Amino acid sequence: MKLAGIAVLICCAAAAPEQTGQDLADGKATFRSNCAFCHGLVGGGGRGPALNLGRFLHGSADDDIKGVITRGVPGTTMPSFDFEKDELAHLIAYVRGLSGERNNFNSPQLRGDPVRGRNVYEHSGCAGCHRVGNEGSVFGPELTRIGAGRSIEYIRASIVDPSADIPEDYAGVTVVTREGKRITGVRINEDTFTVQLRDASQNFQMFRKDEVQQVIPEKKSLMPAYSSLSQDDLQNLLAYLDALRGGLNAGADVKKEKGIR
Amino acid sequence: MRRGAWCWLVFTSLVPAQNVTYDRLVHALSEQQNWLTYWGDYSAVRHRDLKQINTSNVKDLRVDWIYQTGQAGSFETVPLVVDGVMYLTGPNGYAYALDARSGRQLWLYKHAFPPGRKADGVNRGFAILGDRLFMVTPDANVIALDTRTGRLIWQTEMAPFNNGQYTATLAPIVIKDKVIVGISGAEFGIRGFIDAYDAATGKRDWRFWTVPAKGEPGGDTWLGDSWARGGGSTWMTGTYDPQLNTLYWGVGNPGPDLYGESRKGDNLYTCSLVAIDPDNGELKWHFQFSPHDTHDWDAAETPMLLDLNWKGRDRRLVVQANRNAFFYVLDRETGEFLMGKPFARQNWATELDAKGRPVLMNNQEPSPEGTKLCPGLAGAANWMAPSYNPDTKLFYFAVREQCDVYYTNPAVYIQGRPYWGSVSRGVTEEPEWGLLKALDPLTGESKWDFRYFHAPWAGTLSTAGGLIFAGDQDGYLMAFDAKTGKNLWRMNTGNPIINSPMTYMVHGRQYVTMPSGSAVLTFALPE
Q1: Domain identity same for A113 and A93
Q2: Tell me, what DSSP letter sits at residue B8?
Q3: For the domain that residue A187 is a member of, what is the CATH number?
Q4: How many helical (H) and strand (E) elements, i.e. helices and strands, does chain B have?
Q5: Which of B143, B173, B328, B412 is the most exposed place for a label (fewest CB within 10 A)?
Q6: What is the domain range of residue A188?
Q7: Does B368 sit within 8 Å of A29, measured CB to CB?
Q8: Is the bond leading into B256 cis (omega within 30 degrees of zero)?
Q9: What is the DSSP string of B237-287?
C-alpha cells in the first residue's frame, strides 16, 4: 500500500520545464559543490537521503523540492540554501535526471519481508542500542524514520560495516580513569579540558581530562559489525528498516486539556 | 546650596572629555594603563608592561564585572580604554562607553540605517583622536562620535551598500589628522580599496585601490576586465611605523574566490602586504604571499612590526603568520623577503623561493569534483591577533589545523550576491584541532605548543606578568606561562571566543577584558 502511494506521487509530480544541456551542466556543477557532500556524487545517498530513487521525502513537485532546498529540513542536518532562481531550476532539473531508469521500487535490494525483518531486529538485539518510536535505547542513532532519511545502500553498509562512515554525533570515546577503569560511550561533547559521554546504559559520564589517565577517541564505530547475518535475514532487516518512515516530530503531540485556557 | 549641589552633580556625571592627541597615539606604549588603538599601539605587539596579574597569582583571577548588551549578535571588538573609560563597538551598528572599573554604561550609540536597509554584522572596534571616536558601520559608512555623549558628529559613505555588496567591519586607524579604513566584500565582486578621511570633517583625502586598473602598474596581472570585480578587500586594520611614516596593510583574496580561470595572472595586490604613505595613499612597496590565490587565503592577518637583530644586524621587520600556513619575515623599509617557514600542515607549496614566491605542488587547485587541501578555507591563521613578548622574544598566535575539500565552478556576477566560484566543505574523516603556538620569529621554530580540541578563532595578549591570555572555540578564556606554555588559569565563558583579549589599569588595579558573545567579561584579582 505504501509503495502504491509513492507511485501516485511520482505520477502527479509536475513536469520539469524545458532544460538545455548547458542548464543541466550548470545544475550538475551546483549539485557537486553543494549537495554531493551528503547525497553522494550521483545522488546515491550517504549521510543524506538518496536522491536518485525518483521519490522525494517531502513531496516530489518542483515546489516541494524547492522548499526543501531553500528552507532546509528542521531537525535534520539538511541546511537551507540561497540559490538564484535559474540556479535552483537547473539544480532541480539535474536532481530529477539522477533518477533515470531507477524508478523501480521492486528492486532486488528490497526483496525482503518487513514483518520478518522486524523479528530479525528484535532477535539481533538492535533495540539494545537503537530507538524506534518510543521503544528501545537512546545510546545509538534513532531509527524511527531511517527508511525515509537514508538509502538502502547506506543502511546496508551501516549494518555490515558500521565503521565505514561514523556520524559525528555518534563518535565513540573511551576514558581510562586513574584507577585504570575503562569507560566507553558516545561522545556528547569534548573540549580542551573536559569530555562528556553517554554510556551503553544510557547514563551521562562526565570527566575533567586532568583527573583521568587518558581519553582515547575510538577509530571504529561502537556498533558491532553484523556481517554474519544470513542473506535472508539481512534482506528482511533492510526491508523492515526501509519501511520505518515515522514523522519528524514523533512524541511532540500536545495533549490539550479542555477547559483550561 | 541646593542649586550648587545640583550643578556639581551634573558636572561630575559627564564623561570626562578626552584629549587623545596624535602624539599620545605614537607613544601609546608609554601609557601602559590605557589601550589607545585597536592593536593597543601602532606596531601591534599587543604586549603590556603590567604585572599585577602574574604567573604566581593568576590562579586567583576572577570575574570582576560583566556588561550584557541584551542585543542579538556577537562581539568581535577590542575595546579602547582611555583614563578609566572603556569605549567599544558592538555588532549591528551599536557602540558603548562604560566605566572601566564597574562596567556601568555611560552612553550607548545605535547607528540609524536607512529605512528598508537590512544591514547587520560584526564590528571590530574604535579609533580615537582628540575627543572623537571613529568607527565603520555594516552599511559601509565611516562615522565620528563625540567621546562625551556618543552623539554623531559626521558620517561619510565609503561605497554604496548595494544590497550588501560593500560592507565594513574593521577598527579604523588614526594617523596624524586622518582616519584610515578598509572595506569588506571580496566575496561579492567588489574592487577593494583603503581610504583616508579627514578626522575633522569626514571628507575623503585619498583612496588606494588594492586592485590596479588596466594600464596601471600591476594591471597586467589580471586577465581582461577581471580587475573590475577583483576583490582585494581590506577588512582588517593596518599597522604603522611613525619613523618611516609607512602604513602596512594586509589585502584580502581575489574574486571570484575559488575560480581562477576568469582572472589568470598574479592578481596584484590581492593576498599581499602593501606599504603605503599615509599622507597621500601612494604605494611604497608590496609583497604578495599567495599569487593568483584560489583558496580564499586573505593576507588580513596582523602585520606586526618588530625591531630585531636579524643575522647580526638591527633591522626593522614586519612579520605575519599568514592564512596560507607560512610565517613570513620581511624588511619593512624595503619589503625584502627575509624568511618564510610553514607553521601548520600544508600541502599546496613545496617551498618558497629566494624571493618568497611559493613553488606550487600538483593538484592544489580547486576542482569540480573537489580537491582536498590543507589548510582549509579559513586558513591556518586568521584575523585574530597574535602578540609578542619582549622578555621571552617569542611570537604567540592561534593556529587552526583544519583541511577542506575545495570545489570550483565559473561564477556569475549578480549585485549583492556571493561571487565565490563555488564552495569549500570541511574534511569529515579527520578531526580538526588547534594550537596556541609560541614561535621564535628569528627562526620560525616553535618553542612550545598548547593543543586545543577545536580550531580556534581567538587571539592572544602578552603581559609583563609572564602571561599569555588566549581563548578557544569551546569558550575557555585561558592564561598560560609565556615561557613554558603551562595552562595556569581558565574559565568557561559559555560561548565560543571569537576575539582577542586586552588589559588595562584603573586606580592601580589591573583588569583583563574579553568581549564575547553579547557580554563584556572583565576579570581582576580579588581586592
Answers
A1: no
A2: H
A3: 2.30.30.100
A4: 2, 38
A5: B412
A6: 172-217
A7: yes
A8: yes
A9: --EEETTTTEEEEE---BSSTT--GGG-S--TTTTEEEEE-TTT--EEEEE
Contact of A221 with chain B, judged by CB distance below 8 Å, is answered with: no
Distance between A18 CA and the closest CA of chain B, angstroms: 21
Measured distance CA(A78)–CA(A45) in Å, rounded? 13
The CATH number given to whatever domain includes residue A122 is: 1.10.760.10
Give the fold, CATH level 3, of B2-524: Methanol Dehydrogenase; Chain A (2.140.10)
Q: Does A33 touch chain B (CB under 8 A)?
A: yes
Whether B391 is a known active-site residue: answer no
Residue A251 in any domain: the answer is no
Q: Do residues B243 and B26 make contact, with C-beta atoms less than 8 angstroms apart? A: no
Contacts with A37 from chain B: Cβ below 8 Å: 405, 425
For B158, B393, B442, B482, the CA distances from B447, given in Å and listed in that order, are 43, 11, 12, 10
Cα angle: B320, vertex B193, B22; to 5 degrees: 70
Count the domains in chain A.
3
- If asked whether residues A43 and A152 sit together in one domain, one would say no
* Structural domain spans, chain B: 2-524
Predicted complex: ipTM over 0.90: no
Q: Does A22 touch chain B (CB under 8 A)?
A: no
pTM here is: 0.89
A84 shares its domain with A201 = no
- Each residue's pLDDT expressed in tens, for chain A with a length of 261 residues: 344 433 333 333 444 456 788 888 888 888 887 888 788 888 887 778 888 877 787 888 888 899 999 998 877 788 888 888 888 999 999 998 888 644 444 444 578 999 999 999 999 999 999 999 999 999 999 999 898 888 888 899 999 999 988 888 899 999 999 999 999 999 999 999 999 999 999 999 999 999 999 999 999 999 999 989 999 999 999 999 999 988 655 555 666 666 555
Residues of A in contact with B452 (CB under 8 A): 192
Q: Sort out which chain A residues have CB atoms less than 8 A from B428's CB and list them.
A: 168
CB distance B385 to B500 below 8 Å: yes
A234 and A126 part of one domain: yes
Candidates B205, B241, B293, B296; catalytic one: B296
Distance from CA of B222 to the nearest CA of A (A): 25
- Interval B219-233: pLDDT, tens: 999 999 999 999 999
Which contiguous run of DSSP H or E holds residue B387?
A: strand B387-389
